[in-house]
Amino acid sequence: MRTIGQHRDGLEDLVAPVLSALGPSRCTIDGLAVDTRAGSGHRVLAAAVHSPVPLPPFDNSQMDGFAVRVADAGQRVRVVAPIPAGVVPAPLAAGTAAPIMTGARIPDGADAVFPVEATSPGSFPAALDLGHVTVPADLVPGAFVRATGSDLALGASLAPTGAPITPALLGALASAGVSTVQVRRPLQVLVVSTGSELQGADTAAATIGDANGIALRAALAEVGASSRTVRVPDDVEAFGSALDDAVGDWADLVLTTGGISAGAYEVVRQALEPRGLAVTPVAMQPGGPQAFGTVVIAGRPVPVVSFPGNPVSALVSFEVFLRPLLAPLVGLPADRPELHLPAATAAVSPVGKHQVRRGRVVDGAVHFVGGPSSHLLAHYAAATHLVHVPVGVDAVEPGDVLTVWSLR
Questions:
Q1: Distance, CA of 172 to CA of 55 (rounded, Å)
Q2: Buried-state track 77-105, b at ≥16 Cβ within 10 A, e below 16
Q3: What is the structure's pLDDT at 201?
Q4: Which residues contact 349 (CB under 8 A, 6 or more apart)?
Q5: Which end of the chain is more exposed for a tag (fewer CB within 10 A), N or C?
């Protein structure tokens, strides 16, 4: 059996060429704003963006008040026409003050703003009726003025290559007048669920829902990958035909579940092992049966990663092997947040395997949720952490410190 580290290294070698070849595509920021992956920061820039304008692009008022000259400080000056946002105001003459709204452009000649609260009405629109105002004696140049380029200078970097696309970045791009950007194309994964018992596998014997297809597509979406699902029965000929049709020229990677153990109807193994799929059991529970390889599908070589069919095994395999390789593509850490916490209760583990249990952290200790079996998906759904019992440990006692990965 392989160790977890050996298997992960093998998968990294398999998928690295595909990940490095993901080319850029140009997207509008409007489109990215409604892309749920982008809004979560799960898409990244394929090219750096530099600001085509300074931000802010002109001196503007930080608050509602009066634009004035500091040279008139302490004097009573005449009130002239107000300056709303969105207009280019006339220059401000000496001895005058212009009512100005937040965000409005500072007129030439003015070098400060004092707040409307410093007048006797104390607010607009009443202060618009004032004929004269007194400029505060302690006013200094630049008071309540947002200077041109104070957020970002002309030509400065808005974001580097690889920056995650977040709501704040999209807002900054929009404010700078950037309408399109180059983004890294998402990895396109075909998720293949095997089993004649699956609903949608085109067989009258279908009796259960495709937990693996749904769960793995959701897990892939969390790391910015695009996915499609195909469900196939336990028939080698039907499997091969369905795989060719579904892969086409779309899929970068094929992820299968089920069909790689030692049973009589292991369709993935029977169909793909002669074509280059290597079955490589790993010393892990759950998730021992594993396979990967480059296989010619639809007339071209495609990397294939194969997980076990039990739903907990499939999800644990994704967390241990595939998520660490895909998360950095979208600016996420390769590793889940890790803690080292005492066990609240006892547990047993096969001494020759790395066991991954499900758990919850309560009052600084980790409590196991459900047993180690690979079909207990509802218990996995109730868990907040994965709990690692390393190779060589056959029993966990209360108080033993374990490595814990946070899932939420």
A1: 9
A2: bebbebbeeeeebeebeeebbbbbbeebb
A3: 54
A4: 285, 355, 372, 389, 393, 394, 395, 396
A5: C
Q: What is the pLDDT of residue 373?
A: 80
* Count of beta carbons in the 10 Å neighbourhood of residue 192: 29
Structural domains of the chain, with CATH = 4-18+186-330 (3.40.980.10), 25-54+151-184 (3.90.105.10), 60-146 (2.170.190.11), 338-406 (2.40.340.10)
pLDDT per 10-residue tile (average), the chain, 408 residues: 96 96 90 76 88 94 97 97 96 98 97 96 95 97 96 92 90 92 93 78 63 93 92 89 93 95 86 94 96 96 96 96 94 93 96 96 96 83 96 96 96
Q: Which residues of 290-317 are buried (b: 16+ CB within 10 A; e: fewer)?
A: bbbbbbebeeeebbbbbbbbbbbbbbbb
| Exposed/middle/buried for residue 191 (C-beta within 10 Å: 0-12, 13-18, 19+) | buried
Task: Quote the CA–CA distance of 256 and 251 in Å, as a whole number.
Answer: 13
Contacts with 71 (C-beta within 8 Å, 6 or more apart), sequence order: 94
- Report the alpha-carbon distance of residue 30 to residue 45 in Å, rounded: 15
Question: CA 214 to CA 187: how far, in whole Å?
Answer: 17
* CA 367 – CA 370 distance, rounded (Å): 10
Residue 105 forms beta bridges with which residues? 60
pTM: 0.78
pLDDT at position 118, please?
95
Output the pLDDT for position 209. 81
Residue 186 DSSP class: P
Q: How far apart are CA 246 and CA 228, in angstroms?
A: 9
- pLDDT score, position 206: 52
Q: Which stretch of DSSP H or E encloses residue 341?
A: strand 338-342
Residue 380: phi, psi to the nearest 5?
Answer: -60, -45
CA distance 404 to 85: 54
The conformation of residue 373, written as its DSSP 8-state character, comes to -
Angle, alpha carbons 347-378-398 (nearest 5°): 20
3-class DSSP state of 83: strand
